[in-house]
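The following block was generated as part of the benchmark described in Methods. Ligand: adenosine monophosphate.
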Amino acid sequence: MSSIPSIPSTSSIPSASAVAGAGSGANASASVGSTTPPYAPDQTAAVTATASAGVLKEYISFDDMGLNEQVLRGVYSFGFEKPSPIQQRAIVPMMQGRDLLAQAQSGTGKTGTFIIGGISNINTELNEVQMVVIVPTRELADQITKVALGIGSFVGLRVHTATGGPPVQEDLAVLHQSRSKAAHVPHLLVVTPGRFYDLLNRKAVSPATIRVLVMDEADQMLEARFREQIHCILALGWPTTTQVALLSATMIPELAAVAKSLLRDPVEILLEAEQVSLEGIRQYYVEMEREDMKLETLCDLYDHLSIQQANIFVNTRAKAEWLAENMRKRGFDLNYIHGEMDVEERRRRMDDFRLGKCRVLISTDLLARGIDVHQVSLVINYELPIQRENYIHRIGRSGRYGRKGASINLITERERRAQLEIESFYGKKILDLPADLHIM
Ligand code: AMP
């Protein structure tokens, strides 16, 4: 079996049959105007799109895309009426088997893009895993699974979510069914990198049957935590028939290098994510002398603001727990979530937040990316993020899919400098919170 070229690896992982410059990403591009507000169905985004074969055609209706009738039913029944700009450009090329490189962040409709495009290329009559979506967190995996089950409901799509936490035996039991005749093997696997690598090593999934490989939040997956596993996975020798889609909020150099060697003549959708996603979001700060004054300030804010749902971001697990405890002591009903928490508990708390049973959720940056809670109208940065890029992921959540939102940074004098850096990085002014607090 021939392999697509392996990626240049910064780790010590053996790289198989590297072929320099095999990708032709450089001659295919599409860009979305950097001042475009986040997509909303009734907005006309200024988008220019090109690919190696010329300008990418836009499909302004799902009806015109030539989708399988049952997929189309799934799309409409899931509540999508009109494709978002990325969906208008990327679904059809994906259906045609093209590789995809998309710089798009949560809120643009990227999940719908790779789910609709991807499941159009698999055969649900077959009893094997044919599509894999690799994601960095359990929460994102759950969210994508829900979209896939919804859109794929009429084609009989079977989806399995496999992430760290639950015993791998549970995944093996589901995936190994292929050995029995009456099997119901999932067609789509939504998986975190470590678990996927484990499943590949155990031969529970074979690259040979994978027709569509999607890596979501690809920049995050090339960070230290996952880098080695991702390079191992990509170096496994994927068939040339495997279509690859990389989606990422930012285009870091390492990702560009991965894309260049991994993707073949990809369609590229480039979206100036930072500036796009801060549109429509009013950013404020409250400065105080000392860190220990933040708690009182936060309580004051709560008394004054009429909030539907709010996220409070902190940087550490300990701070999340401490803040939750102290807010509760003061009579506020809220919850917290962090990455070191038992996955079932995390899931339960996330569900409560999604369903509105819990109005305020304190979180570490675990939640900063990709978690879709429609009602979130306010994000409070109790601490500024350690990684500047996470600022946009935290704040961007409040303006998802065209919705307006506000953010408030609680800063001490010492953090003023970091905030100035954020302002200049994103080119957006963060205002002193007005005394009348009529921001919502
Ligand atoms: P995503 O960028 O995939 O995280 O999607 C952000 C939000 O937009 C999710 O709540 C999706 O359900 C929603 N969405 C995506 N595409 C569409 C569409 N074409 N019409 C309506 N809602 C959509």
